User: Fold this.
Amino acid sequence: MLFQDLGARQVVADFSGGTLSSDGGVLFLRQVDQQLGLSRRLAGCFADRRDPHFVDHSLPQLLAQRLYGLALGYEDLNDHNELRRDPLLATACEKKDPSGQDRFNPAHRGIALAGASTLNRLELSNNQRSRGHKLPHDPRKIEACLLQMGVRGLPKHAREIVLDLDAMGHRLHGLQEGRHFSAYYDDYGYLPLYVFAGDLPLWAQLRLSDRDGAQGVVAALEKIVPAIRKRGRRARIIVRGDSGFCRDEIMSWCERQGVSYCLGLGRNAVLLERLGPALAEARARRCLCGAASVRVFAQFDYQTAKTWSRARRVVGKAEVMAAGDNPRFIVTNLPIRGFRGDPDRERFTARRLYEEFYCARGEMENVLKQQVLDLQADRLSTHYLASNQLRL
Assistant:
């Protein structure tokens, strides 16, 4: 399309487009992947039983394509039916010819990357025993690989590492394996276990929603804690979680292994009775000062009648607000006077332990939101548990 000349220059509009890409950021992902070695390490957890003479997409290339797609916001396999023509994505996946003219099958030339069906066979290879599924993976190797890479991101000379535990319900997308109705989420879903160290994910274990939220925590800690201690031998490890993880099995394991813990504790009649004087004091203070809310903290030793194997230190928050009383409890084995050598020996006193340390676990909620909102970790839409665990 020609327009009036601009002096000696000819003005031309060209709508043919050419070879374009809208995802220039994938080249930065490629640099990060090369530095971390993520695709290369994960490829070592798979077995490639294909005939190399008829293979266009190597295993590291398939994994890189899937990982980069997730990081770019393309969480669905269907997206790759268009992405497979993207030249920059092909470059990031180390395709020698980003235009795809070197494909083995002449019918596929001009399409550099794998389509949705090929990537789907990669995810389903552990569940399908057919000649089309020849890329099985070892879940234990992937678990160990990602744990090792996560621990490697921790400061080597850290003096203290806090492990945050949480379970998050992910809704299902149909009649999937392990389908169970969760009354808490009022829907069918899974209940994965997450373990974070700061903003580093160390563990993401798929679980059914008909189990206790603390199921599998000890087994996970038995792998996570040794990996951290191998990284930093002098690091003090503290396990932190809400009342869903307040189980004698977890606390007893931590005590035997020299691991500290700070866990939420559900209310009961005995605890409320022990906190009664603090609640009375909080009510009196609020009446005298007219504040919107008043907090008074108390601590005492407590042991359940049947479920706990020993007495433990409990910190109670007696909070009185305009809406009524708001008592809360935590249980811990952290020392009241702090650890020897700490510059601040008062950090584990009752008030500071609750307000500054325990409540800081709220930051993990933001990290979980990043997993779900930014990386679509809840897109567990394949039929089988094994393939959904691979996605997670």
Q: What stands out?
A: The radius of gyration is 27 Å. DSSP finds 14 helices and twelve strands in the chain. The longest strand covers residues 293-302. Residues 140-374 form a domain with the Transposase Inhibitor Protein From Tn5; Chain A, domain 1 fold (CATH 3.90.350.10).
